[in-house]
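Sample 1 of the test manifest.
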Amino acid sequence: MGTVGKAIFLLDLFTAREPELGLSELSRRSGFDKATTRRLLVSLSQNGFVEQDVESRRYRLGAGISRLARIREAHFPFLQISTPAARELSLQTGETVHLSEFSAGALATVHVEQSTRANRVNVDIGQILPLHGTASGIAFLAFSRPELVKSYVDHPLPAFTSHTITGRAEVMAAVRAAAARGYSQSSQGYEEGVFSVAAPILGPDGYAIGTLSVASPLSRIDDGLAARHGEAVMDACRQISLSLNGEPVGTRLNLAS
Amino acid sequence: MGTVGKAIFLLDLFTAREPELGLSELSRRSGFDKATTRRLLVSLSQNGFVEQDVESRRYRLGAGISRLARIREAHFPFLQISTPAARELSLQTGETVHLSEFSAGALATVHVEQSTRANRVNVDIGQILPLHGTASGIAFLAFSRPELVKSYVDHPLPAFTSHTITGRAEVMAAVRAAAARGYSQSSQGYEEGVFSVAAPILGPDGYAIGTLSVASPLSRIDDGLAARHGEAVMDACRQISLSLNGEPVGTRLNLAS
DNA sequence: CGTGCCGGTTCATTATTTGAACTCTTGGTT
DNA sequence: AACCAAGAGTTCAAATAATGAACCGGCACG
């Protein structure tokens, strides 16, 4: 791993649940020496990518990141376009909806609309979702370049629950089913007791760039409701894709083997 | 400059006006060798910090940045809290309002509410503002740690227009005036024909963490209107600071020499 | 008042980064 | 259709930056 990769690895240790970390914690979790960790943090903080709390001496993500994110968002308004559709979908289904964008080989959760129900699924912003084992991942693969699907599925796939599909053939079957239907389903593939449906958000080339997903407690779901959620998430994604790309887009299905 | 600094320098070349750049352009503007530039870009893209357009081969900021920014925003909802106040202030004044956050020794513009008038000031998201020469900068300095003010003002200050105040004494006078009034004024200090007022957004320790500013065409401004804008921007900032910190905060004025 | 953990620092050793020179491709010009 | 210019991307010996064991001083706990 190069120096740049290490610096970004440190940034990736900050999560919604643990947004502030001390030097020793960062060193321990990254596996980098304390001196190395510190030097990287100093470089990052000089450029505004991390900030250090003056009194607790702990580090957190810095304003420089927000600034760049806003530049990106001004150019490519993924959140601005998708957020209202996600909110509407959440209200319509009464369930937690999360929006993901593809980045560095996985899906990153960039927005969440929490269900208002007492019994609901909680998803953290910034969470990284694997492409197998989540409804979002399968929906993404179903509308990705075949090379990407192949290279992903050729590596060993870890299990997250006892229900995670890890076999190449099983994943490909789920992908083909999702491509045919237009949305994917996943029951407890990533977390016990959670059922999700997801559909792809397409880029100008017709391939997926992200996903929208509805996540429900499994106990609430039956086949009819799952299908209704599937149709709803597909509609929302179609609308988002249209707004993002300005014009209709020919979808790229993965129906072949 | 360390490797990490160079990587971030590359990221900082992407702006709202030029959100996509080719390898040679990046190499030229950064002054790094083309091979070096490329290696940095590859590292960055492997981690989702930049993306490469498949057909044009140009680079742009990546989704990994959005992801981290969302984690930060979930922890510290600067934009979420400030944006509505900025919008209201823009509607109230009829002028362009911009929100800045302090980062790496300068103010970074993270949100803009454009005036709806035909003759208006345009500000780009992501723009870096110097601490002298903008109303925002002076407002920030007026509510900053004295050490920060001193170290800033001890370095040579560039002029952006013929009206930019660059002398240590002049800057300190403007800072003291802003501290006494609660807001700052700047006439054409950064761009010709632009008049601005600004007030600080305060952190939990009572020192400024950002600013809110109203920017008008100079032709529209007289003393009375400037004062009304000043009071309005101060009110908005007070409200934001309160919401951000949860409780009243003792302000830290820079009234001493 | 000793022990452990924290943040932070030092400097000889080591590994990564660097950049001149190269190829390959594209698009425009004569 | 041959030429030129400019772009993206690659190679490898030389130069430079990153590394980490051992260190300091402070603070909290028993």
